[in-house]
Amino acid sequence: MNFRLLFPISVFTVAILPCIGFGADLAVSDWKDVQPLLSAKCYRCHGGEKIEGDINLKALANEPKISEEFELWNRVHESIASEDMPPPTADPLAPVEKELITGWVKESLDEVAAASSGDPGPVTMRRLTNAEFDRTIHDLTGRDFGLAKQFQAEAGGGEGFSNIGDVMFLSPAAIDKYFSAARQLADHATIMPGTGLVFHDQRIGLRGPEQLKGQAEQGLYVWYQQKAAPYLPSDSDDMREGEYMLACWKHQNFKTPVETLASETGLKLPFLENWWNLVNSTEPKSRFLDLIRVRWRELPGLDATNSNEVPVEVSNQIASIRADHLSWNNSQKAGSGIQRQQQDADGIRPYPMKCDVTGHSKVHICVGDIGDGNAGDIALIPEITVKLKKGSVNYFNWLKKEIDDVSNSLAATPPPENAEELKQCLEELGRILAVFGKHPQPERTIEPQVLALAAPQVFTLPLPDDAVQVRAETKLDLENPEAEKATIQWEMTTGTPRDVNAILPGVLTIWKVSTEAARNTMRDFNIMREAFPDMFERRLEVVARNLYRNKPGISVYYFSDEQLGQILGERDRVQLTAMKKDWRYVGPGNLNDTLQKEYDLAMVEHLHQFAARAWRRPLSEVDKASLDALYQDGRAKELDRESAAREVLVRILVSPHFLFKAETLPVAGEAEKRTRSDDGDIPLAAWEVASRLSYFLWASLPDEELANVAADGSLLKPEVLATQSKRMLKDVRFAALAHEFAGQWLKYRGFEDEDGVDLKVFPEMTSEIRSDMKREAIEYFTHLFREDRKVSDVVVGETTFLNERLAKFYDVPGVTGDDFREVNVSKYHRGGLLGMGAILTETSRPLRTSPVLRGDYLYAVVLGNHSPPPPPNVPKLDENSLKPASLREALMLHRQDQACSVCHDRIDPLGFALESYDAIGRFRSADESGGPIDDTGSLKDGTVLDGMEGLRKYLSENENQFNENFSRKLLGYALGREVLPSDTKLLEKMQHSLHENGGSVSALVIEIVTSRQFLNRRHELPIALANP
Amino acid sequence: MNTNTSRRKFLRGAGVALGLPWLESISAFGVENTKSNAAPCRLAVCFTGNGVNPHHWGATMGENGIELANTLRPLEPLKQSVAVFKGLWNPTTVEGEGGHYPKMNVLSGLRVKKTTTDVEVGTTMDQIVAEHCGRNTPVPSIVLGTERPSYSTDSGFTSIYSAYISWNSPTTPAPKEIFPQQAFDQLFDDGSKRKRDRSILDIVLNDAKELRPRLSQRDSQKLDEYLSSVGELEQRVEQAEKISQVETNGQGWHPTVKAATLDRPASGIPASSEDHLRLMFDILLLAFQMDRTRVATFMLNNDLSNMRFPSLGGVSSGIHELSHHAGDETRLSHYQQVNEFQVKLWAEFLGKMAATNEGERSLLDNSMIMLTSSLMDGNAHDSTQLPVVLVGGGCGTIKGGQAYDLSKEPNRKLCRLHLALMDRMGVRLDHFGDAENTLQI
After folding, report:
1. What pLDDT score does A869 carry?
2. For B205-259, how does the pLDDT look when each residue is reduced to its tens digit (9 = 90+)?
3. Cα distance between residue A1002 and residue A791, in whole Å
4. Helices (H), B147-297
5. How far is A166 from chain B (nearest CA, A)?
6. Cis, bond preceding A120 (omega within 30 deg of 0)
7. What is this structure's pTM?
């Protein structure tokens, strides 16, 4: 029994007020005057014989319960003030009576609202909604997994949104699904000591040690190549070797800093640094490389007489060094020169010499010992062929014939005039012929026509007059017992022979395969190859081999890790360090104890970081210990490190710390840290505010910046809060409001999956059009939020977002392509929400339009009016079976019934105004049965709404009502609860701010996030203190 | 010390509603006996939203026994197992305003709370049965459906009400599975996947325990849902292990179907609602055949349903819209077509149960399968009586071939029938919902 009934209500209630606090009824002083009026004029329909409109006033006869029945009294006030009530058929209220009732109700409502104004209200702990789950996972992993698709479906609560704690339930099946989702994510993760948790599109699964190693290696290798490629010279680029060497000379002699030299000349600083290091280096030793570095070091210094200029000699010598250097390679085709061929030199095949000799009388065969001693260095030339202008001859035969010819000439009588000359010639030829068939090692015998030459020597051959080219098959003398030691070069030239006691640049060195001499020389040669790779791909590889180096390489057109880091920037530097850390632990087969411990520690560190992000707060020592314990448990059960870490990952994602957005209350010992505010609320902790912000604005977790200001507590400062909020409004994630908030409120969220259209009648409603329509709405609201547009644009704006297909569907010209863009469509009967196909279709029947559904959508959903369900036992209106014209009549008839007219008088005219759009949102000039369209509707006050234009005019006149509803919905969405009387002041403030800020949506957001409601929670005792 | 025991102590200590207290009373029918060689009793409630065409619903007793009205014709071959009830209702449903939401208490009989936040319907009879006899099967109960709830609230009610007939606490709807693949996995998973999860379940339970003292009373209730869900999941893993041990012992009754005779369904929802319904029925059949669960509810469609059947020629509207036929002949005939089609699919399922031999009796004889709605005449939002058909012998305790007319009875509460069914499932209660005595059938 209600004990209040025992006492005169008004006196008693007022008397105990101070003890009750807010929530009690404050204004009941005039109730005794108002109640008899209500009893006489209202109770008959509202609680007596009937309970019209779900309003039972009689039940409140004893006590009006203003705060509990706030909305009901609000409606009483509205309907009496607007004279909707009492209805014409009932006993009317005299003006003074009306005044008395509305005055009292208004005052009572205001008092209740004021008494508890700003109350944070009852907010039940929220779990991540399905959408929030997916967005949070996206932000945690960088990928869209869409795992929430198969979670339990959600419904709307509070102001009609899924993010209301009360209507989110958990069950074993739901937990099971969270497990499956977490396992799936874990399967897509690599967890490594350096790179930590990385999520991939493809499933990774269990990886053995070899796979770990291989993938870490491969990962680094590819990374190096990808990162270095844009900055390394390609094969067609001029490598500017001379300029680099000159810059090094200037650096040495003019003391010009390398940075200056690089910027003045456009040389690349890292390459210049590398050149400088190379030309000054002595290690690793390489006589082939010395051809550059030693010769550079031997360049002349400054010219004492002209110390500002580079001596000509320096330039000349540099040019010569460069030419020699380039001769190792094939300038026509990179990677095919001697530098490439050297590794295949085997000493078995002949390596012919060739020389163009046109116009020359002699050719020199140069046989060099590459300066390392001539042991074994004997070249065998079985045949020399001389190509003549006409035909060709064997040199040995020609030589013998020439000797014969000269001898014959000499033997002639009388002796020729040039006999002396001929004698000398014969002698010379004889000396040359004598070398043929004679091996330098006396004990060896060779065929008479074979030429055997020991290095080092230059052996010069006189040539026939009309010789064009000489070609000599040449091979290493392998029968020589010392051939094991051979390293020999040969070339043929008509110019000045080069020094055969030193390396001949650009000439293949011949050796016997698999000998010490070959290996040593190749090693020496390789150092030069590494310093100057002959192809772009090999330059990339040299960088990639940083992986195996612990100090920078000797290459020139190359980047050390440090140089690469300087070019690429912070992110890549961190990434490289992390990848190399992975490699450090997974590269070697066996790790000593210290390294093993480090490895585990690194893994656990990453899990801590991930958990702190996922749980949206700093971890306590207890949290950390719990994570570590599971990891160790996995290791103890002989899981590999990655698998053990994956168990922890699963555990993080099924924890209540992840799934719930818990807001905790201070328990014993914390009271001093988190004191109640002046209003008696409990201020939220900084990271709780951060989560409220991010889930309100982004439907996802705080990003790094927000987490940082939460971590240091500065988020609680109003100026930081404002800065962060404004920053977040600019972020792409702010579009979440278009999907979650506007999509749920305005009912287009699931539009693409619906099938409420009869496709036999409307085959044009393809799935593409359906998804375009959804996209139109999403684009519209995304732009509204991201570009901070005017809230009222939604109902009175002149633009929308279209692609070609949807524009054609709407008959809007001039839009081409698949991309959506903003189009002014005011000339085409559209603009804003009202012209959107998704909305017009959503509010239609499968076969035809429904003015009632459309009207109700505008009236209740868009404008936020209360629209009660149809009362029972009313004559049923069947809008489907009637022809359109008679539907209008039927509706008119319907409205003559008192029970119906209250709502339909307001709803139907709004819907009629949209009759020019068919059931799938196309503009039309005839209705379903071919009759003319009547898109006028008259409101009760006589206002005539003439089609879309009339409706827009009406809405722009009632812009404030839309703005208020928008604000109310946004507040309900932000707070995760129903909007309460105590929010009235805040809603008014939001309206004011909206007005001050030109109607921009951000004004509402800022008012909400800085409100007492948003930043606090009600003072309640935590379980720990409530049930000690 | 057994950690599981201590955890359960904790759960109870924390005030978690793990369900009703263990029921010690002996069932009037004695069918609840895990060690006997008799096959166990199965219970399923199938539900269709938005009522039925009252002109063609029901049955009468004629000279040759039961005579079925048009809509129930597909049950003709099984009619000796059919009991049709006329006049049963939930009186609370006509007290308030609202044509739909307040009537979604079919299985609890208690008032549906008008709210957009703290929902309340009452624990439903199927979940009470599941709490009791669910311990004998790997899955305590399966709650199937085909449609999601919509977002939004309406007339002061949350849309949740339209989507659930099973509630496992007064304030928590039992999660409904609408994806065939997930329903399949839930029923036929051998528990191996969950074994790995067990150590994690322990740990996250601990997370919740640590969090709980710092929460408000209101918030802690949400956390308790988590605690009990995790706890229950753990129990299921244990239970599955125990059951598989029992199975290998070779004692007692054994289901005749030992392995899944159905391929794992594809992911997602079948494009045609007909395929979707059939597949869900097949999954349910297999679950009963294999004794994976003994309790089920299946919402063929939600209240306020948009489900459409384009395959029925000319029927293009959603079920809810069709139900408001306003007496129009075409639309009434469409409504009728949908009614008949749903009963036909249901009858196919029942026929397969009848064809499943379980020794002495068929699976259908060992079952009680109800079809009902939250409204009789959908057009008028009439819930002064509800359509209720019961098929199956309840392990030999129910006489079939009967048409009961209770419409003139003073006490025609639906919950009386619920008491009768619960009793046969081994749950004997003095009262349930708004009923204080059992309907004699």
Report:
1. 63
2. 999 999 999 999 889 989 998 998 888 888 877 776 676 655 555 567 888 888 8
3. 9
4. 180-188, 192-211, 217-249, 273-289
5. 5
6. no
7. 0.77
A377 backbone dihedrals φ, ψ, rounded to 5°: -80, 75
Q: In the prediction, which pLDDT does A420 show?
A: 87
B238 touches chain A (CB under 8 A): no
Nearest-CA distance A132 → chain B (Å): 15
ipTM tops 0.95: no
pLDDT score, position A780: 96
Place of tokens 């409420």: A756
Q: What mean pLDDT comes out for the span A320-327?
A: 94
- Partners of B379 on chain A (C-beta within 8 Å) are 876
Sequence-distant (≥ 6) Cβ neighbours of residue B217 within 8 angstroms: A1020, A1021, A1023, A1026
Is the Cα torsion angle A244, A245, A248, A249 positive or negative in sign? negative
- 184-213 in B: which are within 8 Å (CB) of A? 186, 193-194, 196-197, 199-200, 203-204, 206-208, 210-213
Which of A170, A617, A674 best probes binding to B when mutated, by most B CB atoms within 10 angstroms? Answer: A170
Residue owning tokens 């007692």:
B252
Q: What Rg, from alpha-carbon coordinates, does chain A have?
A: 46
Cβ–Cβ contact A428 with B under 8 A: no
3-state secondary structure of A938: strand
Sole residue written with tokens 């003015």:
A851
Distance CA A465, CA A358 (A): 9
A308: helix, coil or strand? coil
Return the number of other C-beta atoms located less than 10 Å from residue A394's C-beta. Answer: 14
CA dist A129 and A168 (Å) reads 8
Contact B155 A868 (CB under 8 A): yes
Written as six digits, the tokens of A812 are: 């809007």
Rg (CA), chain B: 21
Question: Residue with structure tokens 């009852």?
Answer: A122
Residues of A in contact with B154 (CB under 8 A): 869
- Closest Cα in chain A to B140: A172
Task: Please tell me the distance from the alpha carbon of residue B79 to that of residue A670, in angstroms, as a whole number.
Answer: 70
Residues with Cβ within 8 Å of residue A725, at least 6 apart in sequence: A693, A697, A1005, A1006, A1009, A1010
B113: its two tokens: 């709370």
Cα–Cα nearest to B380, from B330, B323, B338, B430: B323
Do residues A856 and A907 touch, judged by C-beta distance below 8 A? yes
Which of B168, B177, B197 best probes binding to A when mutated, by most A CB atoms within 10 angstroms? B197
What span, in angstroms and rounded, lies between the C-alpha atoms of A49 and B124?
Answer: 33
CA-wise closest residue to A342 among A358, A354, A330, A359: A330
Length of chain A: 1028
